[in-house]
Amino acid sequence: MTVTPSSVPTDIEIAQQAVMRPIRDVAADLGLTDDDIDLYGKYKAKLPLSLASAPPKGRLVLVTAINPTPAGEGKSTVSVGLSQAFRRLGHNAVLCMREPSLGPVFGVKGGAAGGGYSQVLPMDDINLHFTGDFHAIESAHSLLAAMIDNHLYHGNALGLNPKAITWPRTIDMNDRALRSAIIGVGAGNGVMREERWVIIPASEIMAIVALAVDAEDLERRLGNIIVGTTSGKEKRPVYARELGATGAMTLLLKDAMRPNLVQTLEGGPAILHAGPFGNIAHGCNSLVATRAGLALGDIVVTEAGFGSDLGAEKFFDIKCRAGGLNPEAAVLVATVRSLKMQGGVPKTELDREDVGALERGLPHVAHHVRNVQQFGVPVVVAINRRTSDSAAELTMVRDYVEKLGVPVALCNVWAEGGAGGETLAREVLALLDDKRAGFRPLYDTARPIREKILTVAKKVYGAEGVDFSSAAEKSIDWLEANGLAHTPVCMAKTQYSLSDDATKLNVPTGFRITVNEVYGSAGAGFVVAKCGDIMTMPGLSKKPAAEGMRLRPDGTIDGLS
How many other C-beta atoms lie within 10 A of the C-beta of residue 187? Predict the structure, then answer.
């Protein structure tokens, strides 16, 4: 598939003009037959779960980024464009990405399938209901929530404390009104208690689907979910398996557990599966999708949510550790816009040339380079070009990065597709050819929870220390006493700053991280530390992207981007 840009159409217009390949043909490029895939129409398919246990033959490349502006820095677009570039250079590259959540689609960003001439298709399906994975996760999560309240209503044989239930409800939408609610109001409607909702990407079941390696592991992890504690001094954890929920939850997830095969705008294979957010969850596509890609292709390009301080750290410390993955190179996406914002330019003026602000913001990219390097993974900086970037600004960033001693490439994949990423692809290939990678996680999971949190705060964020609320202190003690002492930590904090304060830009110093809440995700296999004012249920902006969307009379979609 070849598309030549002649003007500046919108992302959805570009996607609608593309001529897609039948997904059978995309699968055939990977050596798969019709018997290996289950079709979801002409352009989507489910892959067999068995691919996740096949011997890997590919090499793994991570795409991460500096801290983003509210508009994002094009990390997904670069990931798509890089995979397209590899294929143009003769490599059997496979793209592995997360599935979009409806919350951001209808909220601020308007879509999450790449952009311009570096998108995954069918873009409208992917951004909406896709193959139903999110709905299945919501259903399994809701089933467990319903069974908890049903158990309370019918006598509470397990002695579950209604005031100590930790399992929330979920919905795949930004809805701040659901952050705190009262349920069970009225006679005969169950036990009245406080309740909260989280968005699906923050659901523990999303994390479980993203980290489970097979159906047996999925069911085991679901059973390990802690739903709350018992009353009295003992405060024993109560597990989902004790409620008899595990079997039915597994049934609801049997198809959602399988990776989805789609294609890039240039017809290359893309495996999209799972969608935990990088700021409030672990931010990576599924382990089974990445393993499938490694079994099918010679290079796998994957991405992790937001900046290296969030998604990349969790990719290395949680996903790679859990799945035995060996990343051999990383791409750090940087933009002139973001670096100018780090240098003090308001977001409304980022399209105006300002080399002074850009110079002030450049240390920010150096911090993120060091973040990746400390995991033993070589990195190349990709300057994701935007039409508003001036030649002087682009030269300033390139010169600065070269002085850091790492390779740098100008990337123009939004406008040129794979052709605009060939220089970047060659730089990544050079890193792979050097075989200098020596991946290592940042900390030993056997260390105490507080020490692991402090390690991330100091070594990744640059904090002086960590302050724990009294509630967090008590939670940590309880978690360490109840089997969750030796797990990775999943840090939940703002994506806009290296600190836990979104207003502290660039490379702040002299700051401390405040951990307000710590809770266990025993099924996922990690402990979550919520920092600053981060929330697991976003809200809509004053003018959400949903206001600009519609279905045209001819059945096509307008407004997705």
Answer: 4
For every residue of 132-186, which 3-state class applies, written as one string? CHHHHHHHHHHHHHHHHHHHHHCCCCCCEEEEEECCCEEECCCCHHHCCEEECCC
Amino acid occupying residue 293: G
Kindly state the percentage of the chain with pLDDT values over 90. 92
Any idea of the CA torsion for 297, 329, 438, 90, to the nearest 10 degrees? 40
Place of tokens 């999209």: 272
- Which residue type, as a one-letter code, is found at position 166? T
Dist CA 307 CA 370 (whole Å): 13
Contact 526, 489 (CB under 8 A): yes
The boundaries of every CATH 3.30.1510.10 domain in the chain are 134-246
Token output for 253: 């997830």
Whole-angstrom distance, CA of residue 253 vs CA of residue 274: 12
Which residue ranges does the chain devote to CATH 3.40.50.300?
11-131+256-434
What is the per-residue burial (b if ≥16 Cβ within 10 Å, else e) of 334-369?
A: bbbbbbbbbbebeeeebeeebeebbbbbbebbbbbb
CA atoms of 224 and 526, how far apart (whole Å): 12
Band (1; pLDDT cuts 50, 70, 90): very low
Indicate the burial class of 528 (C-beta count within 10 angstroms; 0-12, 13-18, 19 or more). Answer: buried
CA 82, CA 93: separation in Å to the nearest integer?
9
**Residues 46-99: tens digit of each pLDDT:** 999 999 999 999 999 999 999 998 878 899 999 999 999 999 999 999 999 999
| Topology, domain 449-531 | Formyltetrahydrofolate synthetase; domain 3 (3.10.410)
**Bridge partner list, 65:** 333
Provide the pairing of β-strand 181-183 with 193-195: antiparallel
In this prediction, residue 558 has a pLDDT band, given cuts at 50, 70 and 90, of confident
**Residue spans in the chain of domains classed CATH 3.10.410.10:** 449-531
Q: What's the CATH superfamily of 11-131+256-434? A: P-loop containing nucleotide triphosphate hydrolases (3.40.50.300)
Question: What's the token pair of residue 530?
Answer: 């919520």
Paired tokens of 307: 């900046």
Residue 512 vs residues 90, 282, 317, 457, 466: alpha-carbon distances, Å:
48, 22, 22, 8, 5
Structure tokens at 487: 């797990």
User: Which H/E stretch holds residue 332?
Assistant: strand 327-334
Q: Which residue has the tokens 């937001």?
A: 306
- pLDDT higher than threshold 90 for residue 8: no
* pLDDT tier for residue 156 given thresholds of 50, 70 and 90: very high
Say yes or no: domain 134-246 is CATH 1.20.1250.20. no
How far apart are the C-alpha atoms of 432 and 421, rounded to whole Å?
16
